[in-house]
């Protein structure tokens, strides 16, 4: 913004009061004036009044400084003086400056007009006297010796008239044939005489002579046969690199050979017996070979010279559109002269001749604006590529003031003088002005006038380069030209480009947008008033440089020349309707017929009459332009039909606006087609003006003595119009519409109609409080609607994938035509699209088209919540809240519906997520937001943490087809309900419903992160009880199937359940009392584990009574279902003791009906602990089943893998050993040390089948003492591993085994990431030094962007890309056989980071001083996950994936959001915060 009243001109000027108006950039209406065509200064006020009455608030003056010999205002003779012809008398310079200052102040104070002027930094007039004193200010042959060849060529061109005379060719050039004759003289006589090639090549004759003088034959053995055979090109390159240099740039033969360096090279090519003639012939041939590309370069440049001279001569002397100059002479050569020759006088006589020629300035077609075309790296002057301005000398600044002190000081003084007088600068020839020079001078100007308005015209041809100039120089506006449009379609594009944001743009107050979208944590004080002291960080989107849109500039041909005179009015009107600065040139409004030449035009301006040309219409347009900018009419709709263009400029809040319909007059040959009727829904209109410009078809001649416009008639009215018929129609529902119909017979080209529009009927006014009350309050009714929501309700409102929705209410996710099905049915499904749409203001997106086309999306949002209200009554209030707002939105014009739908969704989504996260904060997670009152304390991981925590709500919900208990069969189950207990899905969308939803392993890996850290203790407890109730054979099931038909094929699920119990007791308020909770058993246990009976822990498993056996499958209608009960503590003991005693059974219902691919042996499940070797390690599984998380069963008959597990991992799986150790540690060190431990735990040890008892404390120590011996693979070889069965398979050392004594020995020593789980859960098992070595290898080789490689890339079985649909014969990948043989799994990252922190920050031997660096690295590693979870374009499910392909590449067959991936990373975040004290 610039002040309308400026206070920076001098200390004496009255200061601006706070009540005075600021002029927004978009309100600027600038008029270009050429001062030399104005009367003297004392007669300017009437012109100012005329300009102000026409609506202009800024005058752009071409330079007012003393002009050079050409009389162009842009060829300044003296930058520090003002032209004498501006004043009525001859004044000294201080008086002139004072008079001008007073006049400009009068323009501002009396007429409300700011002033700006051109600053010309790139050149000076060729006759500027100071050039004689300071020739170093330009590019001469001393300061720029590389220009010598160009100067000699220019001299030859200037003297070419003599060559024409000698050749008998006339110097009067008029025809193309004559031009050909002249150019033949140029090619055949002038150029050969110049011998330009001498500036490129080595002087072979001179060099050979020097060589002959110094050459001495080489010694025997210097001859190099291999070098000789390499050929002449190699010899030449060798000698060129070693001996050729360029000195005395700009001189002929400036490339020289250092003979002493050349001689050894020639000696390698000649023998001692060779004659001097032979030697010199070799040397000459090499020099000629070196010169060959230089000659080619010279020839190429000469061809450019000929082409460019020919083209320029044709334009200047033959082309009918050119100046058609006359006789070729010394004063008027064939083409422009490129150099100014300083006169020889007493001042210049002291200088060398090389300083007397100065390069003229100019421009180059499609030139690189960032390259100095007079610099040593440019051949523009030699090739004659410059369109030279013969009256301007290009100024040479160098790299800084020290390179040319006088010039920098002079131009600084000039700039400061202008800054004292004017409110703004137009940088002339900005694209050719060195950026560092302009920046320096603008800095000087802004010290004097900080509010300086700077604009420029850039001809870079690149928006990127434009932006570079704008950002480096702080340019406020770039000039854009309406006269560049070649037809109405292009004109409409320009108006749209600079017109503002589209109608219905998704621009909203910050409080409507999701906080995390703007980089804020969700628990910020969102609905509270922002304090002045608080910092608000807003995600700012870059924009194109601000435009100053000119209907015509002083360099443009007029509409009369390029189109028709009648087009003057529609062009002015269309420009005025844009949301940017606008401008014009004096004479345009008066319809001056031609471009006025700033050099040759001698007439003066007339004082225009108020009715002249288009002035009556223009004044209304410009006043309206400023009003719309000041009042915030920022939205626009542009429509072009035939030669009609309609522009509707709208206020984004009130929706009041102004509608222009204009008919262009690019030509008078127009058809009968008119603009189709315009229908405005719920809007009324009123005529602001109606006008049509008609040129009087009178013969006339150029006005002598004054600049005048064409005789024209302006049909004008500010009351009514006959060009458009308007009709209002009211409807029964309270809505209405206005239709505008074009009168084609009357609405001729050159006409405009301007309306004011405003909302009417059942419009926005009816619901001014429908979005929000005053700042600092929640939107009405929204808090009440979300405050009652439970965790399961939040899942319904925000999430639910299509399968979950179909299971629950029989519907699916919303499908947007042209986009596809949304990832979620709830609000976050819409957010996955509209966050990006809102950021990009992408009104062309399919979601906006669907909203404009009908109310289906709004009805969907309300309908689904109403359907859910029968099972979840709490969502009914929110459904009503949506319904009330959507009813209002439906009455809006379709253009506005996307905007307000998005706002409502944003508000509701933010509110529900706020409710979710604030509830979490209140329960447990202080680390997520340490201090809500101090935003500066927020962790950098806060947004990531909250995104991860929302994963709970994504995956935890109530699904009718599955739950935690058989429907109706466990009515007293904790946290159950008639509609079932909410359950956690392993991932979405693949594991959404039915028996595939709840996986024991996945749930208990995720338990701490998704339930316990956020404080969802009830959810954690219900899952522990549910799975505990299904304990059978001493195992927790992997697939729960809500207890109907659970499957017991996972050896690790029991250990993860035990891990969950430990974590629950640690985090939940009830602690170890949880172990007393009674759980009803879904299946009858064997007699030994029937708690409450005399048999408990006394009888053997084999003593079961026939007909009352334990561990048998009973159906859900069997009376034995839930007959027995155990406490959680008893279940824990049962799992441990049964593993100690040995488990061996065949799965119930074994066969293809249970698993279509598994071989018969695979249904045999076995587990046992080994104590005879004092290891205590649990072993299990066989070659034909896969009982750990790496559970891919081959099922490709074509590839021969059906029934073969890809990763059986039988034996002692390392993570199971770690989980076993964690359980034993917890029982020994936490449970059994309680004085009343017998109240909640049944025994202090296990009894084996041979009656031997193993105390838990002993088993714990047994594992600790044996683990390293059995699992660590030392970096150095030793006897143990040299003699072991797996030694031949070891490829990596310094790591831990993946399994122990598997059926396939090589798999024991495969480098897999599973040992990091053991490192995290049982760090005491490991030697810290060994652990750090292994972790560093894992970090280096296995850690991917989002996951851990499941197999080392060097392993023969590694296949990094998973494709479950692969139907090839390649057994390593067919049907996704490589699921766990390379693809990168997300859940392991959390355990790795936890372990990495543990062993590098806590364990013995770690370097505490590196802790900050460690934390920084861990946080940096999490940035990938943070960026991924927030990138809703690539990741619409807003979670962390199950897995990725190699190097983090997207995997189509992976779940895009997986419970354990988010959970374990959240654990790592928690660990980081614990480490830092947050």
Salient structural properties:
eight-stranded parallel β-barrel; 1478 residues; 40 helices; 48 strands; alpha+beta; seven-stranded mixed sheet
Summarize the topology.
Blueprint: E1 2-3, E2 22-23, E3 29-33, H1 45-53, E4 58-61, E5 65-67, E6 76-82, H2 93-111, E7 114-119, E8 123-125, H3 129-133, H4 148-158, H5 160-167, H6 176-194, H7 204-214, H8 225-229, H9 232-243, E9 244-246, E10 255-257, H10 259-267, H11 276-317, E11 339-341, E12 357-363, E13 387-394, H12 405-421, E14 424-427, H13 435-448, E15 453-456, H14 463-473, E16 477-481, H15 488-498, E17 501-502, E18 547-550, H16 559-562, H17 568-576, E19 581-585, E20 604-605, H18 615-631, E21 635-641, E22 644-650, E23 657-663, E24 678-681, E25 683-695, E26 706-707, E27 712-717, E28 724-730, E29 736-742, E30 751-759, H19 782-787, H20 791-798, H21 802-809, E31 815-816, E32 820-821, H22 827-840, H23 846-853, H24 856-868, H25 876-890, H26 897-923, H27 942-955, E33 956-957, E34 983-984, E35 987-988, H28 1000-1012, H29 1017-1029, H30 1053-1067, E36 1078-1080, E37 1125-1127, H31 1128-1141, E38 1143-1146, E39 1164-1169, E40 1178-1180, H32 1214-1231, E41 1245-1247, E42 1253-1255, H33 1256-1271, E43 1272-1273, H34 1279-1283, E44 1295-1296, H35 1315-1321, H36 1328-1341, ...
Parallel strand pairs: 3-4, 3-19, 4-7, 7-14, 14-15, 15-16, 16-18, 17-21, 18-19, 20-26
Antiparallel strand pairs: 1-2, 5-6, 8-13, 9-10, 11-12, 12-13, 21-22, 22-23, 23-30, 24-29, 25-27, 25-30, 28-29, 31-32, 33-34, 35-48, 36-37, 38-39, 39-40, 41-42, 43-44, 45-46, 46-47
Helix pairs in contact: 1-2, 4-6, 5-6, 6-11, 7-10, 7-11, 9-10, 9-11, 12-13, 17-18, 20-26, 22-26, 24-25, 25-26, 26-27, 27-39, 27-40, 28-29, 28-30, 28-40, 29-30, 30-32, 32-33, 32-35, 35-37, 36-37, 37-38, 37-40
